[in-house]
Amino acid sequence: MIRPAEFRDLNRAFSPVAIPDTSEGPHLALAWNSDADRASRPDFTRAGHTVQACKGPTMNVLELCLSPSFGGLEIYVCRSVEALSRDHRVITVTLPGSPVHDWLQARGYEVRPIRTRLPRLPLRAAARLAAMIDKREIDLVHVNWGPDLALAALTRRFSRRRPRLVHTRHMLMNRPKRDPYHDFVYGQFDWIMAISRNMEQGLRQHLSDRHAKHILHLYCGVPAPSAWLNPDESAALREEWGLPKNAFVAGVFSRLEPAKGQHLLLEAIAHLRKEGIQIHGLIVGHSTDAGYAAHLLERVNTLGLDGQIVFRDFVDQPQLLIQACECLVLPTDRETFANIASEAMRAGVAVVASDRGGMPEMIEHGISGLLFESGNSLHLADQLRLLHDDPAQRAALATAGRDRADRLFSLERQLPKLAAIFEDLVRSSAPRAEPHQDL
């Protein structure tokens, strides 16, 4: 049994990457025990691309992430390092003292710090990184954070090895990037991988036509919960938060900033309170906008929600806390593709999300979750009322959401696909990765 006091320790570490049973065919894990195991790995087809099984040598991979933050993107980088390190040699280049640097170093992964003074033209940093790549015989560089693209592109040009470059894109592209600068930068990448089909369409729309055949789609994937809470444990956790044991709790897990829309949850709860419906809010996340954080506290007071709203700082492993909620709310104005929603779905918790961005791709409204009109707190209140008044419907949505997330957004399925893309790319002799003939 997990006691509330133990959550502090549990939240210091991620769930380990689960290794699925090999009977699942194409979705095999990265931990091959022998050459025979590796040779038995089948090909799989994804979005029109056939990725062959790797029967070649171990790769030398460099993960590049100079982000100073620690959110979904950075967590994905850490999980990628964990998974790839099972079968390949991985070096991660990070910003000195960043959360990614500290997290990986504390767990024994090889980390090399580097700084850039001119992010759009980081010539000195690129020369240093190119020397490291040549010395360590790096085969492939994986980039997740947008500001690192120029560094990776220049590094490839400076390096004698000309390593393969792959960019996993986590943010929507909202404007054309067909100018010479962006055309050069994106032209250095073998694959540009969008984490949603909605994002993939945007990339094809805004990048030069010559890059279109180098764009593909791959969901990030999230782990299953490392532990499951029973009703007594959930009630004890609510009590620790200062909420009634049997409270209906709607949770928001994201940074405190206006675009994330936590104020919409406050307004929706206040509206329902006028109807006599008591819903409590749990808002978890660190503040990146002190003014907005102060605004939220002020709104709690002006809306008369004292005692109904609980604020908690960022946690590394949110799935445990999510299980103590009746639903997860994603009120972001335009969310790319929220990993936290996938984590809630895998934890068997109903999700209510805004209907812009990539969320309609993740959630089938009325089947695997609920959508509300972005920015409309009254429409959000309608969805919360439905979940509050109809426990059977809430349970059905949660079950369907879990099934969908297990099938499409599981870490144990998606990371092996990422590794296979890398392996296939490193094996290719083409100057820049070309699609397979069946594309």
Radius of gyration in whole Å, from Cα? 22 Å
Query: What is the H level of CATH, i.e. the homologous superfamily of the largest domain?
Result: Glycogen Phosphorylase B
CATH topology of the largest domain: Rossmann fold
CATH class of the largest domain: Alpha Beta
Helix content: 25-40%
Strand order of the largest sheet: 5-4-3-6-7-8-9
Structural class: alpha/beta
Could you report the average pLDDT, rounded to the nearest whole number? 85
Number of helices: 17
End-to-end span in angstroms?
Answer: 50 Å
From the spread of the alpha carbons, the general shape counts as elongated
Count of discrete domains: 2
Largest sheet: 7 strands, parallel
Number of strands: 15
Poorly predicted sequence stretches spanning 5 or more consecutive residues = 1-56, 435-439
Shape-level CATH architecture of the largest domain: 3-Layer(aba) Sandwich
Please, could you describe this protein's structure?
The protein has 439 residues and is α/β, with parallel strands linked by helices. The chain folds into 2 domains: 225 residues, Glycogen Phosphorylase B (Rossmann fold, 3-Layer(aba) Sandwich); 178 residues, Glycogen Phosphorylase B (Rossmann fold, 3-Layer(aba) Sandwich). The strands form 3 sheets. Strands 5-4-3-6-7-8-9 form a 7-stranded parallel sheet, sandwiched between helices. α5 crosses α6. The N terminus and C terminus are likely disordered.
